[in-house]
Amino acid sequence: xxxxxxxxxxxxxxxxxxxxxxxxxxxxxxxxxxxxxxxxxxxxxxxxxxxxxxxxxxxxxxxxxxxxxxxxxxxxxxxxxxxxxxxxxxxxxxxxxxxxxxxxxxxxxxxxxxxxxxxxxxxxxxxxxxxxxxxxxxxxxxxxxxxxxxxxxxxxxxxxxxxxxxxxxxxxxxxxxxxxxxxxxxxxxxxxxxxxxxxxxxxxxxxxxxxxxxxxxxxxxxxxxxxxxxxxxxxxxxxx
Length: 240
Fold this sequence. Notes:
The chain has helices spanning 3-7, 17-26, 33-43, 48-51, 63-77, 103-121, 127-151, 154-167, 213-238; strands spanning 30-32, 81-83, 88-91, 170-175, 186-192, 196-202.
């Protein structure tokens, strides 16, 4: 199936305008881009296959998320929503009824205003496209970072985890991961208020979705085993 035909399966941005308003209503009037998009997926009954269609060949952003960015921009230009510097979008009027608006009217009004603005200022480029590309650039860095992390060498990922823990205030952080370690990749010490300190174990995993409960149970068991071994070692050391 050709790329163009695949992209035709994705709802156009104008079809996403009202679902976006409904998503914000269900989120009590405001939400992050991720929260809003997730709600739209449910409201518009968007299948997993469509969600996985990339906007570009690098696969960093999905086509549906790109079109949702267009939808938010049109709603903002129509003065129905606003956004903060922290990428939180909100309804300007929480009492609005999404079904009382027409997608065609929103698109027509925004395009007319955009055209008149360009004519008045002698601008040849399309303001809306600039807005969308700017928003996409702001979002892309997170997806690019995740893609890099997903593809770096496992040992490099362990060192990255070690560095993050150190930057977060942990000390004596060591990477100890090796076969037969029971799932423990490293250990360290976290100090609280200069009075208390706790020994910690960490495991380095890269998952696309949430960590399953099975992995958490296994890691808890590995920690308990490591603590027992440490206790036995210390006991023998004291009594020899």
